[in-house]
Amino acid sequence: MAERDGRVAGFGATLRVGGATMLTDLFVDPAGHGGGAGGALLRELGPVAFTFASQDPRALALYARAGLTPWWPLLYLHGGPDRLPRPAFAVTGCPPAEAARVEARLTGVHREFLAGEGLVVRGAGGEPVAAGAGRLDHLACPDPAAAAGALVAALHAVGEAELCVPGPHPAVPVLLGAGYRITGFDVYMATRPDVLATTWVYSPGLA
User: pTM higher than 0.85, yes or no?
Assistant: First the structure.
């Protein structure tokens, strides 16, 4: 928390995600914009590997000065599967703990899904190619060749959905061609482009 003259001027927070530190929050009282509170908070929070920045030019400039480069937009999409291609992969629902185990086997990243249902996307021979949360708050797919098909199959299973997809994700042209709409975006800023994979589906807070 930052203070000025005994009053709160702003606050920030970070979260460890895999082996990287994500800046999850950074807010400064509008009356104090430009007064250095944002930079002071970043320095106090320590090295940050990435964040999903707002579209506020001041925030983008602050993060860029701190060594974070804007790499791609995180697209907020909304739509239904009616016009998507037929799924090439099978999708099964499962308890969250099972989806987490499959994801760890695919990616080496151990996560806990806090609530809801998990799902696993399986390719030929029943081998898993992706795993995530049932409403597509998250879908991990490490194989770029399978990423578009895995997401299309998951969307067929889920139905109408809102999801956050990296701009370079292989499925983006497919989804937009099938009528999914971009309802907003944030900016992925990081110390290097590969801190996060572009073949995954993310929640804004990586929950």
Answer: yes
